[in-house]
Design brief:
Length: 166
């Protein structure tokens, strides 16, 4: 027999997208534990699974993407060099100022502020969102920025941005 690895990955992703999110969350726990993320009793796990299920083909990929939500990430040097240069940090400061007053801390309140900031600065949303994404996740890959910040929580998001600015 011949195995088609791409078809098997597609099938695996299909199951990640169609199984109940609570089932996927239970299956994800050991993979997160291997990466030093203790998710026992964390109510955000199911919401993180929902946010990541479209972009994850395996539980290993999902655990890699989910880890920053449960443990402080290490900064990817390439992402930091590209998005946290002088211009990136200036936009990160402006972004932090814009979102600091958001209440309640939900994506529906965060996204319009960041979009407005990008429009007033005359840049694309990516120039605002990517420095924030790198600051809070250590990477250039995450769910949409508002959803990422909401899942992290206000205090943790602002603390990670402040750490990146130092």
């Amino acid at each position: 027999g011949v195995w088609n690895p791409e078809k098997l990955l597609w099938l695996n992703q299909h199951y990640l997208k169609t199984l109940p999110e609570t089932d996927v969350a239970q299956r994800l726990v050991p993979f997160l534990a291997e990466r030093g993320a203790n998710v026992a009793g964390d109510s955000r796990l199911v919401r993180v699974v929902v946010a990541l299920r479209e972009r994850s083909k395996t539980l290993v990929e999902m655990a890699e993407l989910a880890r920053p939500f449960f443990a402080r990430p290490e900064m990817d040097p390439k992402a930091a060099a590209k998005h946290l240069d002088e211009a990136g940090k200036a936009m990160l400061r402006r972004g932090r100022e814009a979102i600091a007053a958001v209440s309640p801390w939900v994506a529906a309140g965060i996204d319009p502020l960041l979009k407005s900031l990008s429009e007033s600065a005359g840049v694309g949303l990516g120039k605002v969102a990517q420095p924030i994404r790198v600051a809070v996740t250590g990477s250039t890959v995450s769910p949409p920025i508002g959803e990422t910040l909401e899942l992290l929580g206000k205090d943790e998001s602002l603390a990670r941005i402040d750490a990146a600015l130092r």
